[in-house]
Design a protein that fits this description.
With 256 residues, the chain is an alpha/beta fold. It has helices spanning 21-33, 40-45, 57-67, 73-91, 132-138, 185-196, 211-220, 248-253, and strands at residues 18-19, 51-54, 97-103, 108-114, 119-125, 143-144, 146-151, 158-164, 173-177, 180-181, 201-209, 225-231, 234-235, 241-242. The structure holds 1-O-pyrophosphono-5-O-phosphono-alpha-D-ribofuranose and uracil. 1-O-pyrophosphono-5-O-phosphono-alpha-D-ribofuranose is lined by residues 124-127, 149-151, 156, 158, 178-187, 213, 239, 247-249. Residues 127, 180, 182, 239-241, 244, 247-249 line the site of uracil (URA).
């Protein structure tokens, strides 16, 4: 699997549900030609060659529910899990397979199984935890590491407090998880820590990204493909993503 877990910058899935920069470019041009107003989210995405927007209709529907201030904690948690699962489907599209034989009730058949046993999920605490269960439902054999970081309220700088990942680091493919990519400070710090520990192949999955955070992460780590379900307008003066969905950790764990 590891041979396939390359930077997927510019990749588009061909089914129209995910867009890398090439597909975003084409769609923006189509909209202009058709006399439609260009989609601002797609226009923003053009700036980021290492970002893949996961725009499957189910994902977009669920992100809209997630944004609503009326969505209660229980549903919020379920939606984050479901969105993470759908995003992981996309982010694992190039997992390599090995042939296996299987006995059906009627005869022996040729089948395949996922060859990689080293897929590793690394949630950034706390809010990244909300993405783990959904992905584990798809890839139950994945290992799980943890990175503890919080963003200082005043300076907006990440403060780290925990780091634990499985061994054989260089052989693993990492999916780093955090629903929010705001200033990008936390994501950059988490990737720095993973690389310092020897990680070579990292993909970052977030639900909502701000252009500021995508810019910072892409500049610091251009080899890390960013998967986002939404690329929002901007940060506000308190470092919150606009329109965003508020404080993901508080909404997931009911702490406010
Ligand atoms: C949130 C979020 C990210 C970080 C993003 O966590 O889950 O980790 O902020 O912000 P940044 O891109 O500006 O660094 P927070 O610090 O609120 O911690 P929590 O998950 O423990 O609530
Ligand atoms: N962290 C969050 O949880 N939400 C934001 O909008 C920004 C950082």
């Amino acid at each position: 699997m590891s041979a396939n877990f390359e930077n997927r910058a510019g990749a588009s899935q061909g089914d129209g549900s995910s867009v890398g920069p090439d597909a975003a470019d084409e769609r923006a041009a189509d909209a202009v030609q058709a006399g439609e107003a260009p989609d601002p989210e797609l226009e923003r995405a053009l700036e980021f060659p290492s970002l893949i927007l996961v725009r499957h209709p189910l994902v977009r529907h669920k992100v809209t529910l997630l944004r609503s201030r009326a969505t209660p904690t229980k549903i919020f948690k379920e939606l984050v899990e479901e969105i993470a699962m759908l995003m992981a489907y996309e982010a694992t599209a190039d997992l390599s397979l090995a042939s296996v034989d299987v006995e059906t009730p009627l005869e022996r058949a040729r089948g395949v199984h996922v060859a990689g046993k080293k897929l590793t999920l690394v949630p950034i605490l706390r809010a990244g935890l909300g993405m783990v269960e959904g992905i584990l439902r798809l890839v139950p054999s994945a290992r799980v590491g943890h990175i503890g970081l919080y963003r200082d309220h005043d300076s907006l700088q990440p403060v780290d407090y925990y780091f634990k990942i499985p061994g054989d680091v260089a052989e693993r493919d990492f999916l780093l998880l955090d629903p929010m990519l705001a200033t990008g400070g936390s994501a950059v710090a988490a990737v720095n820590s993973l690389k310092k520990a020897g990680a070579q192949r990292i993909r970052f999955l977030c639900v909502v990204a701000a252009p500021e955070g995508a810019r910072k992460l892409a500049a610091a780590h251009p080899d890390v493909t960013i998967y986002a379900a939404a690329l929002d307008r901007a940060l506000n003066e308190h470092g919150y993503i606009m329109p965003g969905l508020g404080d993901a950790g508080d909404r997931l764990f009911g702490t406010r």
